[in-house]
Design a protein that fits this description.
The protein has about 525 residues and is an alpha+beta fold. Among the domains are: about 50 residues; about 100 residues, conserved putative lor/sdh protein from methanococcus maripaludis s2 fold (Beta Barrel); about 120 residues, OB fold (Dihydrolipoamide Acetyltransferase, E2P); about 80 residues, Alpha-Beta Plaits. The protein contains eleven helices and 28 strands. The strands form seven sheets. Strands 3, 5, 20, 21, 22, 23 and 24 form a seven-stranded antiparallel beta sheet that branches. It has a six-stranded antiparallel barrel with strand order 6-15-18-17-16-19. The protein has a four-stranded antiparallel beta sheet with strand order 7-14-12-9, with no helix packed on it. The termini are far apart. The relative contact order is 0.12.
Length: about 525
């Protein structure tokens, strides 16, 4: 290629653009590669420096089994997964208990964790009851016919009508009455000879509710009548009408039922768990759905000693005056009784929201005092009676303890992830590093971990399943999770097998993956444990 050709190419604009582009790329590579090497070197030095100056060894755990805590990396002894380093926030406090779960201030605020200082109180049990207004049975009377005959006329024709004492209710045509009146007239004629007969006939008419004035009028006039009026023996409201005009009735036939509503009963249903807090004489205030804004009161006059077998409740009666007739039978009533629990005076009381339940255990999280960042310790407690929105604590807490009342589940979830004691894992958090960590590893490696599907519905099922599993020799641990019906089983393969445990559980009445409970055993389970369709 001659010089002229080269010179012509060099003057071409595309050639010049290409040279500029190549020069820019070369310059950029020289600049940034140097900075990258310096940054990488600085980062490596920082990590190494941090590692050299760290006094705390790295703890390795399993993402699926956070209770595993090892000093060296390796495989999980339960599932075989690679262990990962336990992440820490770096904001720890030297005074924090090793079993405590520590949250940063930001994390606690984000989870809306709230605490309350508990104190000793004189607890008051609030018992809420539901019931209806009923007729006072002692003020209810049946209006009967005292003679046999036909209903000739009715003066009360519908249920709910008001009547007064002595008011005629019906007129009865009675041939028997006519004969008795004729006997009275004849006996009157012989009263000087046979006075006893006259008195006997008078008594017969008195039993048929004829007054002495009516009897004397018959004797004097000599006029007889086959008709007799049935008069009301009490004032009140007709709550039952059993006859119509023209019906034939016998002596003793109930014509009407009349109730005096000047006093009524409020009948409430009390569950057996509430009965120990109720007693005769307690003052009760109740409201009615049909009369909002009004409160009625009365005293408990009777508590039925026999429970209803279907509802597991007992009837509680409250007597109430009803001068304005506002209270009507079958109205719905809601009552609240505040019963002081004198046997639990000066006991610690905590809000219901602070408690986490798991099987038979009741736990709370107590804030550790004097720490730079919030730290919470799991505390097992023994509960007394429920007070509605709170509980009496019999043991496990002291006056002045600061417990988590909102966000307890979030704190517990953090404890589970950190491998500490939690509501789902009572013992895992006690695992530590060092020799105890190696002992745990040896124990885990000596056993085998499997999961079995076991059918069940409630806490009674959980207790029965775990008890049946642990009764098999060689079982190291058994935890049944109700949510997914899975039994987490750890056992010594030299002593037993998963099938042997599954058979034991089936024998207790619960179906497993391979074995079914026989029908007789299943039918013997409580109603709340019946899991088959």
């Amino acid at each position: 290629m001659n010089k002229n050709k080269i010179k012509e190419i060099s003057k071409h604009p595309y050639f010049r653009y290409g040279v500029v582009l190549l020069a820019g790329l070369l310059l950029g590579w020289l600049i940034f590669s140097g900075n990258g090497r310096n940054h990488s070197s600085h980062q490596t030095a920082t990590v190494e420096e941090a590692h050299d100056h760290s006094d705390e060894p790295t703890i390795w755990t399993c993402s699926m089994h956070p209770q595993i805590r090892m000093e060296e990396p390796g495989d999980c002894p339960l599932c075989g997964m690679d262990l990962i380093p336990l992440q820490t926030s770096g904001t720890g406090d030297a005074t924090v208990d090793p079993d405590a779960i520590q949250l940063s201030v930001e994390a606690a605020a984000l989870a809306n964790v709230q605490t309350t200082v508990v104190s000793r109180q004189n607890p008051i049990k609030e018992v809420q009851l539901y019931g209806t207004i009923q007729v006072d049975e002692r003020l209810s009377q049946s209006q009967t016919s005292h003679v046999s005959g036909r209903i000739e006329k009715l003066f009360v024709t519908f249920t709910g009508e008001s009547v007064k004492r002595g008011q005629p209710l019906a007129t009865i045509y009675s041939p028997e009455l006519l004969n008795a009146q004729q006997e009275l007239i004849e006996a009157t004629k012989m009263k000087d000879i046979q006075p006893a007969i006259l008195e006997a006939v008078r008594d017969k008419l008195r039993l048929w509710k004829l007054t002495d004035e009516q009897i004397a009028k018959l004797e004097n006039s000599g006029e007889v009548s086959p008709y007799i009026d049935v008069a009301a023996t009490t004032s009140g409201i007709v709550i039952s009408k059993n006859v119509n005009q023209g019906d034939y009735v016998n002596t003793g036939t109930v014509l009407f039922a009349i109730a005096d509503l000047s006093k009524v009963w409020a009948i409430f249903d009390a569950y057996e768990s509430d009965l120990p807090f109720l007693k005769i004489g307690d003052q009760v205030e109740y409201t009615l759905q049909s009369l909002p804004g009004k409160t009625f009161s009365g005293k408990i006059s009777f508590i039925n000693p026999i429970l209803d077998s279907s509802t597991r409740t007992a009837k509680v009666r409250v007597e109430t005056n009803n001068p304005g007739m506002e209270l009507k039978p079958e109205m719905y009533a809601n009552a609240i009784i505040n019963s002081p629990l004198k046997q639990y005076n000066n006991e610690v009381v905590i809000p219901k929201s602070a408690i986490l339940w798991t099987g038979k255990r009741s736990i709370v999280y107590v804030k550790q005092p004097d720490t730079d960042t919030p730290a919470f310790l799991l505390r097992e407690i023994e509960l007394g009676p429920s007070l509605g929105d709170s509980y009496v604590v019999l043991s496990g807490l002291s006056d002045g303890d600061e417990v988590v009342t909102n966000g307890a589940f979030t704190v517990d979830a953090s404890a589970q992830l950190a491998g500490k004691r939690s509501m789902m894992n009572d013992e895992a958090g006690r695992a530590v590093t060092g020799h105890e960590g190696h002992d745990m590893q040896a124990t885990a490696q000596a056993g085998e971990h499997v999961m079995l599907t076991v059918q069940g519905l409630c806490e009674m099922c959980k207790d029965r399943i775990e008890k049946a599993a642990k009764s098999v020799d060689g079982v190291l641990g058994a935890v049944w999770v109700q949510a997914d019906k899975k039994l987490h089983l750890d056992f010594d393969p030299d002593k037993t097998s998963a099938d042997a445990v599954a058979k034991a559980i089936a024998a207790a009445g619960h179906d497993t993956d391979k074995f079914k409970a026989d029908q007789a055993t299943y039918e013997a389970l409580p109603a709340c444990c019946k899991y088959r369709d």
